[in-house]
Design brief:
Belongs to the ABC transporter superfamily. It is found in: Cell membrane. The chain is of the alpha/beta class and about 280 residues long. The protein has two domains: about 1-95 and about 180-260, 3-Layer(aba) Sandwich (Rossmann fold); about 105-175. It contains eleven helices and ten strands. It has helices at about 50-60, 85-90, 100-105, 110-125, 130-140, 150, 160-175, 190-210, 220-225, 245-250, 255-260; strands spanning about 5-20, 25-35, 40-45, 65-75, 80, 95-100, 180-185, 210-215, 230-235, 235-240. The strands form two sheets. It has a six-stranded mixed sheet with strand order 6-7-8-3-9-10, sandwiched between helices. A hairpin with a 2-residue loop joins strand 1 (about 5-20) and strand 2 (about 25-35).
């Protein structure tokens, strides 16, 4: 089997049950998908559809005792649900998360440099003080952050949302991951900054061959980055296929409604507006 066809992640009959005050709620219902080397697979759906719960469940980051996981989740062939301790072998060491909101994901009382160096330490490849600093500088340069030495000394509140998102990507890259899980990585950013972050992810993927699981509600994001799209509603996949097929020829009414919700520019009206107060 070629490297391109090798599955980095294989998910079979994966379900998540959440324990609530009103009883057990099945938030994710028997989903199946795979991500090959260098591929981007996107799960798209409206808020509450179960897409982020799927991602957090796969990473086993849901609250212990409040979430029951079932099915198979194979990372590089190893079932991390059958052996829950196995996930620790991959998280921060080949499997990385880009969380949704950079303002809450970073420690507000620790500098950017200290948080980045800690992520490098967790990866376990570098320990020396000078080597840690050099790697931190390299990672920030890799995500195109200017004036790196200055940024390392700053606290999160001193950087813009777009810069913080780049910092989170740098932290994720510290482990030299084979798989990036990006949970709504552009939802807290304005449109122009979103485009820069997506371009950066695509550039990093092209350069290093990483695989990406993208979680988004934005069909525009999915159209741009995806090889395969899974459309999620009420905890299950209602349509799956190549990105072009899902966007250009959707089969399900729910998918068509998602596409219809994307704002479109109308025709340009060149008629001058009447002055305010004119009759």
């Amino acid at each position: 089997m070629s490297e391109q066809n090798t599955a980095v992640l294989e998910v079979s009959d994966f379900s998540v049950e959440l324990m609530t005050d009103n009883g057990v709620f099945k938030a994710v219902k028997n989903v199946n998908f795979r991500i090959g080397h260098g591929e981007t697979v996107t799960i798209i759906g409206e808020s509450g559809s179960g897409k982020s719960t799927t991602a957090m469940g796969l990473l086993q980051l849901l609250p212990r005792g409040l979430a029951a996981l079932s099915g198979q989740v194979r990372i590089k062939g190893e079932d991390v649900l059958a052996n829950p301790k196995a996930i620790a072998k991959f998280r921060g060491r080949g499997l990385a998360l880009i969380p949704q909101d950079p303002m809450t994901a970073l420690n507000p009382v620790a500098t950017i440099g200290s948080q980045l160096r800690e992520a490098i330490k967790v990866a376990g490849r570098i320990t020396g003080k000078q080597e840690l600093h050099s790697k931190a500088v390299q990672l920030l340069e890799q995500v195109r952050i200017p004036l790196v030495e200055e940024q390392l000394k700053k606290f999160p509140h001193q950087l813009s949302g777009g810069m913080l998102q780049r910092v989170l990507i740098a932290i994720a890259l510290a482990s030299e991951p084979e798989l990036l899980v990006a949970d709504e990585p552009t939802s807290a950013l304005d449109v122009t900054v979103q485009a820069g972050i997506l371009d950066l992810l695509l550039e990093l993927q092209q350069r290093s061959g990483i695989s990406i699981l993208m979680i988004t509600h934005d069909i525009g994001v999915a159209r741009l980055v995806s090889d395969t799209i899974h459309v999620m509603s009420s905890g299950k996949f209602v349509e799956s296929g190549p990105a072009a097929q899902i966007v250009d020829a959707p089969e399900q009414d729910y998918t068509r409604k998602l596409l219809a919700a994307v704002p479109r520019l109308g025709t340009w009206d060149e008629t001058p507006m009447a002055p305010k107060g004119a009759s």
